[in-house]
């Protein structure tokens, strides 16, 4: 009990002195409803072990809320002390801390781009890896966004400037290494109203994790493998609208199953006064994330941009969340996870069960002039690996009895491919692409592109 009291006293003292969770002592006092902290020690303010533990538990729950359940305050405090000690001994006197922060990031995430460091610096960077020092904490300390564990510098002022300096550093670092023009979390971080040290740490930590996940085909494949297990099939095929299931407007949604459970086409229809029915077909993925569902919605342009090797932007896709639903839900109350100026913040869909409403939608689809928006981006894709041998993958071509023979050695991830992976031919605008959907790799079937990967057309499996 004495040891437990000691650690809670230490952690609470550090949280107050470093203004970790709140920028001022007054805000901290208001949260805990204890207004004597500014001129008393933690031990005098919380006079029993139970009160200290209760105060820390309240703070831990608040941090979990701020970080959408990602951060454990106890774990952070342990890592903070460890990283702060390392920083004090090895990095505190750096002449160019921003340059050092960038070097640490590159050394950790892109060691293949490093030509070598002076011996002393190389030894420090090696110790960071060997001792598993929290990179996010080191970056914040180098950028003067987080003080030392034992700091007593007082209330935080003008933190928005320091906050932006850190986010800008990460934006520059991550901008060229992923499938995104800018990681969605970068935008979230900038738009978050709670600009405090712990909130900034949450974003730095998550941005770096996102960067790692999307920075290579191998990581993308690993994520896709996990995602397959997280897909949450629902019985949602049919008509939906945002008018409580009633026929109040001429806009509605039509959700269609695909061959893959948990993945759908969601078509947004809008009828105009000239009897034209305009439709935009999105891809919809539904994933389970602990006690909630995630709805990933991809614009028709997204696949085309991936094929062209272009960075994904805010317009290409978005993420919505909702609490767990029944397998056959009547409503889909979706709230955006990634704030956007291109997508609505909320979409509340109600299943259309009224026969009059369903019949009307079916008549419009039968009798109106259909105008499919973004038709140039429409595509057909079906996973169809024919065979996997020791050294090759075989995928059927457009001709019967002819296969694309793909060397596993042509790409770092081809050796990981399973027979049920999302690999096959994708057709768009009269062009075909050998598609490795799980790693977002699209290989044109032109002779030049096939030669680049050593892919042959063959008539038998060898």
Supply database-style keywords.
Lipocalin; globular; eight-stranded antiparallel barrel; 462 residues
Structure description:
- This protein is an alpha+beta fold and about 450 residues long.
- It has 3 domains: about 1-215, no CATH class; about 240-375, Beta Barrel (Lipocalin); about 380-460, no CATH class.
- It is about 40% helix and about 20% strand.
- It has 15 helices and 17 strands.
- The protein has an 8-stranded antiparallel barrel.
- Helix 5 packs across helix 8 and helix 8 (about 135-140) packs across helix 11.
- The chain is globular.
- The model has no long low-confidence stretch (mean pLDDT about 85).
In short:
39% of the residues lie in helices and 22% in strands. It has 462 residues and is of the alpha+beta class. The strands form three sheets. It has an eight-stranded antiparallel β-barrel. The protein has a four-stranded antiparallel beta sheet with strand order 10-14-15-16.
